[in-house]
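User: Just a sanity check before I run the rest of the batch. Below are the structure tokens for the first item. I only need the designed sequence back.
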């Protein structure tokens, strides 16, 4: 009788485990947030769905909206190109959410100009002066006599937040004439088509259509981002409510795996692990 009861408990346990696994697989994983982290998140999703047959949904509404989604419990993972702000952490606490961040990859904020622009290097102070409106012509920073077209990201962007923290100053407004673009790709496109433009974007998005400028004499490369010598380097994050478990934990830990590292490198980002 004891043996039969023991077997019954084992079967029940097995059914619960399988049922939980099916429920998790059926519900899938939902990510929302950064457009910078987007390529990694989408590539991870494709890999994860192919390997585990678990549906993964990726939205790119900006780091700020990713944080809101996590706080409102409408996503499992917030992908963010900046750390959560104190006010976001406070809002999470009021909702019973405990944000736990893990580094996905390292990234460099590349300062980019039109390929025809002869300027090769700028100091952080010069970039700041351009974005504050104090420098309005490329001639003022060693370039041609041509007006500067300033391109920035929207206020909800983690990349915009990182740029302001690292370059302009968190509380300092960007010049009012600056054009606002909604994504890294949009910034790249605008700069590639505009002779006098300057913009900033994640290193993984910078290609031959734009020209990367050295900052304080250091070019953004995987090596300079990894060793911290490039001054505009930053980590990218996956943020969960508490310590993740199950499929969510497996997804968040992909950057530490050989497959995850390969994906990150192929996308032009820098491996942390």
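Assistant: Here's the designed sequence for the first item:
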């Amino acid at each position: 009788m004891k043996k039969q009861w023991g077997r019954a408990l084992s079967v029940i346990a097995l059914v619960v485990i399988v049922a939980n696994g099916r429920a998790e697989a059926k519900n899938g994983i939902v990510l929302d947030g950064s457009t910078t982290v987007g390529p990694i998140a989408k590539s991870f999703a494709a890999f994860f769905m192919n390997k585990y047959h678990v549906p993964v949904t990726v939205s790119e509404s900006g780091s700020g909206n990713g944080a809101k989604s996590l706080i409102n419990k409408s996503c499992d993972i917030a992908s963010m190109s900046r750390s959560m702000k104190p006010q976001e952490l406070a809002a999470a606490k009021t909702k019973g959410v405990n944000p736990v961040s893990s580094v996905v990859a390292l990234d460099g904020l590349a300062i980019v100009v039109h390929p025809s622009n002869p300027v090769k290097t700028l100091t952080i102070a010069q970039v700041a002066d351009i974005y504050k409106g104090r420098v309005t012509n490329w001639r003022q920073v060693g370039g041609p006599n041509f007006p500067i077209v300033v391109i920035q990201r929207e206020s909800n962007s983690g990349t915009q937040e990182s740029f302001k923290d690292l370059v302009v100053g968190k509380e300092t407004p960007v010049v009012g004439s600056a054009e606002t673009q909604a994504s890294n790709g949009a910034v790249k496109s605008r700069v590639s088509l505009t002779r006098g433009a300057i913009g900033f974007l994640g290193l993984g998005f910078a290609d031959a259509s734009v020209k990367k400028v050295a900052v304080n004499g250091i070019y953004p490369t995987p090596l300079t981002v990894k060793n911290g010598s490039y001054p505009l380097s930053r980590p990218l994050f996956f943020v969960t409510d508490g310590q993740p478990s199950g499929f969510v934990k497996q997804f968040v830990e992909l950057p530490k795996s050989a497959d995850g590292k390969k994906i990150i490198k192929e996308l032009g980002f820098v491996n942390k692990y």
